[in-house]
Amino acid sequence: MNPMAEDDVDRPETVEDLDFALEDLAGKRGYHRQLDADHTATFLPRGGALIVSFEETDETLARATGLPVAFDFAEEKSWSVLHIAARRRTWFRGDAVFSFFDELSDDVLFDEYDRVIFFGAGTGGYAAAAYSVAAPGARVIAVSPFASADLARAGWDSRVRDTLEVQGAPRYAFAPEMIVAAEEAFILFDKTSLFEHVHASLFYGDNVTRLAVPGLGWIRGVPLERSLEGIGALHPLVQGFGLGALDRVGAYGLLRARYRHNPYLRALLDRTVERGGDRLTARLCQKVLSQGKAPAFRRRLREARARLEAEGTLPDWLSEA
């Protein structure tokens, strides 16, 4: 549990609770501002690094703390936070949001910080990339980002077709073009999702690093961002990329934590049973069982061994199960 959430505010359960919690956290030094009916902006001044984050409120409330990811960094790393919340799927677009970032740019708020990091996932990843143009030299970390909210450009994505703009507004629009002034942009996407792969491929340039995250997409019904948080990789990825202290090799090293994540291992087992055959299933089960107790893997190992033995193809390396 985040100490900020546990000690200072009760865990939010509703959107109204979340508004009260964010206003409380902002305190007298910051602000919690209603931009329009769908969007709020919360500013919490702390240290010399500023994380600008974008989350839909249902994603925020699904977290263990009920608070945005960015506020973890305020507590743990003393980062300043500027958080934009959307109460529904708006793609963080609207005249009030456009004007807010115009105002921030005119007021040179971003120039006051040593590091500015734009972060988001899904539609928040799209927004993080698109609005980063307001802070040239910022670093962008986008997880499973969409490239566009324009039906003409992204209507092929059946997951979100009904929520896209019929005619995309011209401002802060096509995210891959908006990151041209970023110092670096890191695009993390689910390697197993064709839609995510296509969106990620539209982000290009010498300042862009695309990372195809292996395997976590097999965990059904769980967004990539939440799986990254589940394996303990999200925070070090954001911190490392945000501060320029992590490269591609280091990032994939962090992703190896999935091999200790039970939801990933169960998804991997199901996929191996379905596609890999008994030998590969037995190999996987032996590996997992060597790390500790895992009844489901023990059962699958016995089943695979019995079939191989009945076929007369039991390999020498397969020990008694």
Features:
321 residues, Rossmann fold, Phosphoadenosine phosphosulfate reductase, 8-stranded mixed sheet, alpha/beta
How would the blueprint of this fold be written?
Elements: H1 3-8, H2 15-26, E1 31-34, E2 39-44, E3 49-56, H3 57-61, H4 70-77, E4 80-86, H5 95-106, E5 115-121, H6 123-131, E6 139-143, H7 151-154, H8 175-178, E7 184-190, H9 194-201, E8 208-213, H10 224-230, H11 234-243, H12 248-255, H13 262-275, H14 277-289, H15 295-311
Parallel strand pairs: 3-4, 3-5, 5-6, 6-7, 7-8
Antiparallel strand pairs: 1-2, 2-4
Helix pairs in contact: 13-14, 14-15
Protein name: Phosphoadenosine phosphosulfate reductase
Would you kindly provide a written description of the structure presented here, covering whatever features stand out?
The chain is α/β, with parallel strands linked by helices and 321 residues long. The chain has 2 domains: 3-260, 3-Layer(aba) Sandwich (Rossmann fold); 262-311, no CATH class. 43% of the residues lie in helices and 16% in strands. It has helices at 3-8, 15-26, 57-61, 70-77, 95-106, 123-131, 151-154, 175-178, 194-201, 224-230, 234-243, 248-255, 262-275, 277-289, 295-311, and strands at 31-34, 39-44, 49-56, 80-86, 115-121, 139-143, 184-190, 208-213. The chain has an 8-stranded mixed β-sheet, sandwiched between helices. Strand 1 and strand 2 (39-44) form a beta hairpin. Helix 13 packs antiparallel against helix 14 and helix 14 runs antiparallel to helix 15 (295-311). The longest helix has 17 residues, at 295-311. It is elongated and about 75 Å long. The model has no long low-confidence stretch (mean pLDDT 93).
